[in-house]
Amino acid sequence: PSTLRLIDGCSLPAQGSLLRLLITPIECGTFYGTDELIDGLLIAAETVGTRLSGAPLVVGNLSQPNGGDIPQSVSHNSGRDADIAFYVLSKKGNSIPLDWYVSINADGYATDGSGYRLDTARNWAFVEGLLQNRKIQVQYLFVADWIKILLLDYAIRAGADAELIRRAEHVLMQPGDSSPHAEHFHLRLYCDLNDRLHGCHDGGKRHPWVEDWSEAVEERIGRLIDAYQSGVQSERDAALRELDLLRVIPEEEEESAEAL
User: Fold this and answer.
1) Which residues contact 234 (CB under 8 A, 6 or more apart)?
2) pLDDT in tens, 36-70
3) How many CB atoms are located within 10 Å of the residue 192 CB?
4) CB 57 within 8 A of CB 45
5) Percent of the chain residues past pLDDT 90, beyond the cut
6) DSSP per residue over the chain, as a string?
7) Which residues lie across from 95 on neighbouring strands?
8) Tens digit of pLDDT for each residue in 145-164?
9) CA–CA separation, 108 vs 117, rounded Å?
């Protein structure tokens, strides 16, 4: 997620009834991701919107069209990361569409004196929308520890599915060596099968329920070795390039999402 690039990135719609982009990604062109990331965000936003009326999901940086480094972040290179603003409520309890991130304290209130407070119901629905989606595999949803506690407490009181809460306990995580993420979520997805077979690599934690595609990768490596050993030179060269992309990369114990 912190190196290399994005190939054939998919763009996130800038404006909709259930989701909209902040101005920064629109101006910087950082609203591209893998198909899975884009679909996952849209489905999660739909999950919230159909359950609970209110403001749309507000999304910040994803990746550039071809990936690579973006300002103020050390990830977002390969289209599997997204910054997401929290759903918040006004002093009167109205759902508020944000124009930027709002930092939340341990009591669930904004630290800027605005009187805004964390909309735990809608934020939990967003988490559920991600974790219930079988087409994506969430690796991290970086967020401050105290916000994680607020969300899990709400989920328990609301009678959420116990297995879903257990998975949320794993993916909701305060990063170890960057900001605590008290003002937004940072979502990271695992590589999907097709991307994994073409050189996408995961680092960091692998949750016990996640498919790692190891059998499919080994099968592809075997086919590429056969092609290298028996093909003409052009086929050998192509197989070698593919094998190089699939080479084993030591997993980093990486729990940081970005510089800010």
Assistant:
1) none
2) 999 999 999 999 999 998 999 999 999 999 988 88
3) 19
4) yes
5) 73
6) --SSB-SSPEEPPSB-SSEEE-HHHHHHT--EE-HHHHHHHHHHHHHHHHHS-SSPEEE---B-TTB---TT-S--SSS-EEEEEPPEE-TTS-EE--SS---B-TTSBBTTSS--EE-HHHHHHHHHHHHT-TT--EEEEE--HHHHHHHHHHHHHTT--HHHHHHHHHHEE--SSS---SSEEEEEEPP-HHHHHTT----S---TT----HHHHHHHHHHHHHHHHHS-HHHHHHHHHHHHHTS--PPP--------
7) 89
8) 999 999 999 999 999 999 99
9) 6
Residue 194's contacts (CB-CB under 8 Å, 6 or more residues apart) are none
| Cβ contact 81:187 at 8 Å | yes
* Token digits of residue 95: 């759902």
Contact (CB, 8 A) for 182 and 112: no
Cα 170 from Cα 208, distance rounded (Å): 10
